[in-house]
Amino acid sequence: MSDQIKFIVDNLNKEPFRKNYNLITFDSLEPMQLLQVLNDVLAEIDPKQVVDIREEMPEQTAKRMLSLLGILKYKPPGNATDMSTFRQGLVIGSKPVIYPVLHWLLQRTNELKKRAYLARFLIKLEVPSEFLQDETVADTNKQYEELMEAFKTLHKECEQLKTSGFSTAEIRRDISAMEEEKDQLIKRVERLKKRVETVQNHQRMLKIARQLRVEKEREEFLAQQKLEQKNQLFHAVQRLQRVQNQLKSMRHAAADAKPESLMKRLEEEIKFNSYMVTEKFPKELENKKKELHFLQKVVSEPAMTHSDLLELESKINEINTQINQLIEKKMMRNEPIEGKLSLYRQQASIISRKKEAKAEELQEAKEKLASLEREVSVKASQNREFDGTEVLKGDEFKRYVSKLRSKSTVYKKKHQIIAEFKAEFGLLQRTEELLKQRHENIQHQLQTTEEKKGISGYSYTQEELERVSALKSEVDEMKGRTLDDMSEMVKRLNSLVSEKKSALAPVIKELRQLRQKCQELTQECDEKKSQYDSCAAGLESNRSKLEQEVRGLREECLQEESRYHYTNCMIKNLEVQLRRATDEMKAYVSSDQQEKRKAIREQYTKNIAEQENLGKKLREKQKAVRESHGPNMKQAKMWRDFEQLMECKKQCFLKQQNQTSIGQVIQEGGEDRLIL
């Protein structure tokens, strides 16, 4: 059970739940909180189950969860009677019912998600045969079945493709990425080669760099190996210390032990093991075989109908009545020998049952002790690794563990009883409210009908008369019955008492002496035990209680301090904001214009007005620029053309001056003549 709870807590702390539970907080959950945790797990499997169970009726919650668990093919342990207890435990949030369900769901979450997804499409709707006579309904049903089969085939193909592990798109992306990386590396290597070739003795330098890289890798490997060896040495030293401590404790226990006590302990273990092998295990094996034979017989028989069940119930009732009649006849005979034998048989059966119960308790205690010893060893090793402090050992630790175990079991039982009472009280309160509402509605309807008929108050008087008459008749019958039964019982008891007294007189004498001895010995034992327990456990229990109280008060103090600092910061922020708001209101309401100008509102309005004016000016300027853009561009072009024309004239003028210095050009008769 502890391994099961640990598995549940570990999985609930992981994604996607992230509950942040530990074993104590999870075990102390209320039934409604436990049902909410179960509902969250079911909602992770099927998103349709996302519901707050506080806003839902318990019957609806149980029906919804049972239907989903049936779809997921969850089989609760036990037979038909256990099924009713399973439903009731699911309604009230019982831990023995919900823990196995959570363990089963969290073990196979992915598989159940797939099953819930497929159930949405593969659960066939049962259409009555009367509706299938219609052609349209029959055609749609046939189409529905064909689509279901097509979905099955497509789902199988999809699963095969998923499990094949090949995806063309991913492979293409990987190939393209690898090719790009290859090209980049080739280019980088070429650039580095070109740089290195210009350096003198580059081959020798490359060789030295290669050797340096190898030595660095070797240095890292040696450092890692050194760290691993240090860790191994540390663990070996810790293991040596643990073994030495165990050796000391074993030597101490062997020094205190005596051969008589060891022999006595070994004899008790041999007796217990022989009893388990010779008596208990064969009986359990026979019972299991009988149950298996009965179950095989039930499985081999055909399915039973409701009429068959009614017949079996009637036969069982008849056989029970016959058994009761035989028991009454046997009691009426009053045979003293049979009475003595039956008494001894009853005592023997009671002793055997007590023996079996004690053997089972002893076996469970041994298993718990072994598991607790394993946990103690693990925790002790962890404690030594973290703190290096020692843990309680020997008799002190055993006494502390026994007290803690008894207190924890009592606490768990009381907590479970309180949870069951709370759940039952909620159900009963709800049913009481519903019944009261129905009764009030019926009374109101009855009063209205009586007022209409003119006989108001008739039903109340009639009920009172019937109740009084029924009580009177019941009291009369009970008086007659009780008188007859009491007279008969007195006669029987007198006869039985006289017989038992005569038969048990010698046994009672012996028993009195033995009782006196037993009382004296038990008193001495209780006194010694109480003294020992009070001396050994008083201080320990007080210390543990005080430590728990101090721990709780420290946590409360830290929480209150953090809350105090947080509230102080919030108060300061609010005071600053309030001060700013009051200053703003004073400045805004005051008649002084200078103070009004200091107000943030006035500053913001002034800035807004300035920005609006600036925006208007910029828009007007933009409009003017847009309007004058075309003519200005034409004018600029004309000026550039004019500049080119003037430059051309300048060049021509310079050329003409150069020509006149060399000679003179004369035009005569339409011809140009150069005169030097």
From TrEMBL:
Entry's localization field: Cytoplasm, Cytoskeleton, Cilium basal body
Example of a GO MF term: tubulin binding
Highest taxon, organism lineage: Eukaryota
Principal subcellular localisation of the protein: cytoplasm
Biological process annotations from GO: intraciliary transport involved in cilium assembly; regulation of smoothened signaling pathway; sperm flagellum assembly
Domain IFT81 calponin homology, residue spans: 3-126
InterPro entries found in the cross-reference section: IFT81, IFT81_CH, IFT81_N_sf
Keywords: Acetylation, Cell projection, Cilium, Cilium biogenesis/degradation, Coiled coil, Cytoplasm, Cytoskeleton, Differentiation, Phosphoprotein, Spermatogenesis
Pfam families per the UniProt record, alphabetical: IFT81_CH
A GO cellular component annotation in the UniProt record: centriole
Coiled-coil zones: 137-219, 309-382, 504-621
Entry similarity comment: Belongs to the IFT81 family.
Protein role: Component of the intraflagellar transport (IFT) complex B: together with IFT74, forms a tubulin-binding module that specifically mediates transport of tubulin within the cilium. Binds tubulin via its CH (calponin-homology)-like region. Required for ciliogenesis. Required for proper regulation of SHH signaling. Plays an important role during spermatogenesis by modulating the assembly and elongation of the sperm flagella.
Protein name from the UniProt record: Intraflagellar transport protein 81 homolog
